[in-house]
Backbone:
């Protein structure tokens, strides 16, 4: 049994995918072990709280297992499952954003949290992302964190491509200003409009 575990641990992702496609649950378990934290990490970057990130990651891996035959190996398995997770998050975000929760989310995310480090030179992307509006944050995170094209992000959000492009541009502009060397993250980004 230890030899089987060692063989799985040293196997390439594509080998594990092939085994999982033929019903190898242990092989898929190894893929989850390898890539679970990266998937939860991108979900937290998108704005999910840790419990929601765990739930969505579990749903993403379940969907990946069900669709394992669709994985063509054109990219990495990790990128593929991250895209599934990002789409699931976007779907959940769209559903929640339709109601009164949108106003609450905007108020919560518009107020930047205090930085983790007192060092003025420390650049913390997570803190800078919290200063973006929720829609800018999700558009930037989908395009740059989950490796979706702007067209794929527009499709995932059910939004016009031009709208996604605008949110990405405004979000990146704000991030550039907020993350400029020597700038404190708790200082307002007054030189960026939007």
Residues:
């Amino acid at each position: 049994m230890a030899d089987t575990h060692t063989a799985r641990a040293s196997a390439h992702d594509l080998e594990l995918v092939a085994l999982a496609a033929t019903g190898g649950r242990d092989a898929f378990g190894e893929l989850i072990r390898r890539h679970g934290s990266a998937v939860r990490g991108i979900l937290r970057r998108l704005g999910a709280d840790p419990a929601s990130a765990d739930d969505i990651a579990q749903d993403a891996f379940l969907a990946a297992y069900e669709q394992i035959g669709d994985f063509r190996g054109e990219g990495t398995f990790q990128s593929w499952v991250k895209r599934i997770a990002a789409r699931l998050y976007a779907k959940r975000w769209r559903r929640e954003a339709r109601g009164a929760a949108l106003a609450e989310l905007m108020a919560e995310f518009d107020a930047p949290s205090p930085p983790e480090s007192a060092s003025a030179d420390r650049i913390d992307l997570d803190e800078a992302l919290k200063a973006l509006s929720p829609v800018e944050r999700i558009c930037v995170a989908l395009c740059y964190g989950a490796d979706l094209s702007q067209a794929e992000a527009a499709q995932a959000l059910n939004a016009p491509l031009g709208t996604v492009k605008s949110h990405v541009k405004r979000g990146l502009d704000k991030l550039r200003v907020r993350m400029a060397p020597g700038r404190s993250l708790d200082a307002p980004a007054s030189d960026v409009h939007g």
Summary: Residues 40 and 60 are 10 Å apart (CA to CA). Residues 25-46 form the longest helix (22 residues).
